[in-house]
Amino acid sequence: MLCVKETFVYLNENLKLTTQALSDKVTPTDELEDMHHRVISSSLLAMATLIDILLGVKLKSNGGESANTESKSHLKVRSATLSSAEAALSMHKYFIDFLKSKSAAIRSATYTLLTSYIKYVPHVFNEEAMKILSSTILGAFNEKDPLCHSAMWDTILVFSRKFPEAWSYCNIHKVVLNRFWHFLQNGCYGSKQASYPLIVQFLDVIPSEVATEKFAIEFLQNLWAGRNQRQLSAADSLAFFTAFKLSFLWLLKKVPRNSVGDSSDNIHNRLITNVLVKIVWHDYLQLSLSKNLDTIPGLLSEEATTDDHQLSHKSLLVQNVRLPIYYYQDLGKCIVEILDEISVAESHLLEVACESLLRDYLDIVHQGEKLSKFQDHVDQLASFFCSLDLLVVQNGRTWPLENLARPLVIHSLPAIKSMDSPSLVKLLLNLVEIFGPVHLFLKYSEKNDDKSYVEPYLNVFNSDFVPWCLDGKHITCSSKIDLLLSLIQEECFFDQWCLIIKYIIAKQKRSVDDKISHTNDQFELLTLILQKVRERIAGGKLRNLQRSGSLPEHWRHDLLDSVAVSVFCDLPATDSHVHFLCAALGGSSQDDQVCFLSAEAVCKIRESILKSLASVLTTSTFEWTRSAHFLLLPAEHEHLKLLGEQSLLANFEMAQFAFQVFERSLFALRIHEEDSVFSHILAALFIIEWECSMALTLEEENDLEGHKEEIDAETLLCNSSDDRLGATVHLKANLAEHIHAFRQSLIPSFWNDLRSDTLNRLANILAQSVRYSVFDTRDLGIDRTAALCSEWVVDMLRLVCLDHIKLQSFYDILLSEREDWPLWVKPSLQNGHASVKFQCEPLATEETELKHQRFVAFVDKIVLNLSFGEVILGIPRNQHCTTSSSIDVTSPVSSFSRAWVAAEMICTWKWKGGSAFSTFLPSLVQYMKTESCPEVSIMPFLLDTLLEGALMHESSNWALFNVWHLSDSEIDKIQDRFLRALVALLFTTYTKERIWRESDALALFEKLLGSLFVSSTVNRKCLRTLPFVMSTIIKPLTEKMKSGEASSCTDLMGESILSWLNEAISCLSLSPREVTQQDIEDWMQVVLSCFPLEITGGTAKLVVKFDREISDAETSLLLTLFSRYRAFYASADPSLSSSGTSLSKTAELLGVKLTAVMVGYCCTKLGEDDWCFVFRILRKWIESSVLLVEEMTDGVNDAVINRTSAEDILEKLKLIACTPEELTFTFAESALVTLCCINHVDSLHESQTLQLIRSGEYAESNDKMMENVLRLFLASGVSEAIAGSCSEEASSIIASSRVVYLHFWELVASFIIDASPQIRGCALESVKLWGLSKDSVSGLYSILFSSEPISHLQFAAYSLLMSEPICEVSLVNGENPQESDMDQQSIESTPDSEKALCLRDELSALIEMPTSGLAKTDLIARDRVNVFVAWALLLSHLQRLPLSSTSRALLLSYVQDKISPCILDCIFQHIPLRSGSGGGASASGKKKDAELVPEAKAAAEASKNAIVTCSLLPYVESLWPVGVLEMASLAGSLYGMMIRLLPSYVRTWFTGLRDRSLSSSIESLTRVWCSPPLLLDEFCQV
Known about the structure:
The chain is mainly alpha-helical. Helix content is 66%, strand content 2%. The strands form 4 sheets. Strands 1-2 form a two-stranded antiparallel sheet. The longest helix has 34 residues, at 1168-1201. Residues 257-264, 289-320, 508-520, 640-645, 707-722, 880-893, 1375-1389 and 1475-1490 have low confidence and may be disordered.
């Protein structure tokens, strides 16, 4: 504290600083100026702070010597501070120069400093200082920066209070008030929130001689003028009106005291009338005088207060600017609070104010709609009364009622009733709600216990308000209903409600006025009243009704019930009927429980709704809807006839009306759902929508089929019915669309809240209705009906939340049996357990079978759309079985299982839109893979059921069953449906999907063994069934044995196979006459089924796999069996024996199959006699098939040569294609399998016996068989080529005949590729000598580009065309193998103009195909595939030709001249490249791979490999089956080979590209993938 003087010195020095003193060469000028302002303002504030602290803080007296010491020290500090402050004030001349600074911060700091001086150094303000400072401080209102206003106000108020005499040292009006008026006019220059609260304080410090009447006028005028200056925020508005209220009340209190020569009351009256009313009140009402009131100087003059009580129309102008809502709220609150204040202090002024307010209100009412904003004025008045209620009435004050509300009603009610203005009615409603109707309308009446006011009040209510409020005028109807309800009092509630109901019902319809629209329907009034009552009950807004009228039942009335029930008889119904019923019922939401009708009336309405909805079904053309109608209304059979006689339009109007009522009052109609009507209504909605969807589907199908009859006399008569049908569909669609939207809007909780019996009834009706629709629909196709009905079920179950038990009950009803379902497996109960009954050959009519097919297709669809476990087994979806107490896990099937349905489906086998293999069994497999309840298994039941059914029938011949190529199509050939179903089930689950259980297999196997013998007699049916079962279960069991997992099942099977071998051996005695061939066939079938062969491999090669590892005992028995069979065959073969016993074809076929098994399993054990027998059998049947095919080829050739017409040749070709004996191909196929086995084991084993078949006559025999196979292949191709010369359809007939024997031809193709050139040459020569109209090459091209392609044959044909010696003649027309090495000199001597290359027609047609059409085809289209394969042939041939050969030059010239390079556009359609794909030259391999999509990557790698290997063969081989990725690989290899062989051709195409992004991508791809191997190849050649 010892440095006070030094501090002041330092601050004074700072205050003397200038901008130049702070100058710095580096600092910019604007920064220097800002720095100077901060130094000055900070120094001023520091000085003010020093004064405040050192002079303003008083020390506490603690007593003692230390206190004296502190006191002395403090005195020294004060003395030093005072002297320094005085010196500073003098030095800086009262700091006046700082108040003139441009910096607001400096001026604000100066005001703060002056305030500190005035407070703590007042003695320095002598008379001289007063003269200087009074004008400056009191005239500071010219300060326009809001940042200074707070400090400025402090200075002014402190100065005025400290030195009241200072006012005399300045010109008050000129210096102070003039600037103050401008300050107010300009809204305090933006400091409203800071300045307005201080205005009253300023009024308090004004000298009394200044606060005159004139001052009051000018003050209010300028204050009011500044309210809307600049943007007015909510806080600004509140601050202003608070200041205005306080200022106005201050003036009322102060001005009379200081006025001279005027009556106090007169001044008060003028303030009330001319300010509060004509300015403030008019502004609140959004009214203004013809001149701007803000600028009238004589505001309180006599001229302005003339007794002109009425506001003329010209004097009321609407403001152009709409002020914020909070402005009017604050303004209204200001007026209310002023009136409330004067009501306490000066009641006579309140009367003056209220009279003026009433006059303005009545004048507004009088002018009415002439005022442009009449409604706004009335709304403002209503808001004013709300403010009165909130601020005054609720505090117990009565003056608003007595001085304003009641007089207002008395004087304006007739005018309000005559004007019928909504705004005025709402105002009246507000008054009633605020003050109460009795107090408002009955003058001198008070509510008391004697209720003497009730009768007069009822009279007023009945005479004045009921007729007026219910006159039905649209414009005020709603407001008047609100008013009428507000007039209802608790003491007379029932009387008033009864008056209203009776008046409405008795009211006669009036004519419509030209100018005012009237409501002609009593229902609209009732609707409006009930809706408003509901809103008030639900919202708890019935403040006037606490006991009577507070509950919905209080408002119920017999007249209401009768009107509501009669609505369904008053048709056609209108929207007003719907609205009325919905208003009376309620229930639009779950929370809306307000119903104004009795329970009896609600029940009657519900019944009427059901009947109306059900009437729609009578208009349907579908038979099943009649049955559904009977389900909904079983007792309305006679009513159905009456409904049928009604017009369609009437039925739909009834249904539409009923649905609208039900939709909008759903929860009210649900209250009494214990009866069946509610569930029937819900069911009717589903059924109506279903029927409509079926009708629309039928109409769409009819439109697609284009059934349009010609317009003749008959169709003209039918036109009216057609129009009627179209209108019906349109009406149905409209209704169904609304029903669908309604159903979708129902949340799950709605269904969960329904009673259990309601859901049961609903599910029952819907299940039966779906069944009726499936069985009885004839107009739609089976698959379309099934899909549609399954969609219904899925949609219904998704919406209706059924628990597990109800859901399974629904399925039980849905799938329950009837006359036409099921046909093969019927459920039954035996000893309380689920069982089945079999119907071997049900006596089913065509109609029964058709209905059965419909239902099977439907069951298949719902299993696909829902889940196998849920529909068939009754297992809850997404729920583990152990969590459901309803499932008995100790049982192999659940208590809800309908496994018999699965058996029926598999037995049915095929249906429209699906089959057991394509749709149903995949669903079963999917369930078994993901089953969550392994204890509940369907397989034992299905296997047991199907086996029992199979054992009741004679099985098919297993020998004809191609078990080595076991497939869906092969199983399809089994005739017996139970056996077929059993084999299909085993094949799917055991062989294909491998999801079998050993326990199931053991149980099945044991049952078979148990049924094989009845006593000691063989069960022939079981014996013939056994090989089919063994063929499917032996492979998975064999795999189990290979893994070393011994089990009871495998052990039992091994023992059984040995016993079956012995049985077969015992049947083959030495003399054929001593044995029944049937026994031989049956036991050999069983034995052969136990030694499986599997043919595997791809397009290029088929391989025979031997799936079992047999024991020595089995090998020994097999050898014995084969030896016995050879002897048996020799004795029965007419060429070998004269015994006279012929061998059956089946036994012979089994011998061929046995031969294949022996070669596969016992090849090393066979002797020379055995091999001799093997080769003789094979040659016999291969040659038979060759002979058969060549005969077909001769027949095709003759038919084409001798054809008379296109139709004739097609018929002949069809006859030829159907002629071949299937058995011949079956024998040949088995022979080829054996030959394949020989080739396979020949490459695996080395033994003395096998060396025999590799040389000598065995080798020759093998070559001869290979040649025959090749002849077979070429003959088939030539026959297709010959037929193709007629037409593509003819070619397709021949090609299709190969598809029938697909496995046979695949085996044929597998031998072609490995044939030696010598064998190929012999086969070609044989065909050439044949002398047919087409050669071998044409045949190969026919197979390669066949309309019925077989991938194995196509690759074989391609391989032959590319191999010696056929490649020499496969490219160019007219060349022979002998002429392939054409004389080079003769070619060179030929003139250039005559040199030309003529490709074969089959090749050139594809190579020269226009690319414009090809580019538009699908990426795997047959034409595109053929073109790519043709290019592969061409490029491969080009690669084979020597670089210097003339043929190569001609081929290159042909490509350059005749073939458009746009084929590369098609190639790159298969190689999707992104911008920059392939990476730069320096990109890493990983990076470039990552930038390519799979197709592009496959193509890039193929292009690289084709360049490196100079071969396209791998990509042609992998082409089939054709896919997008395979085509991309082939396209890439073609591109690589073209770059290698045809670089200029590719360059020509590339330079013509216009897509820069594509060309950049191709360039990048080529640079990364193709250029490196090309460069490497060139470097290697150097």
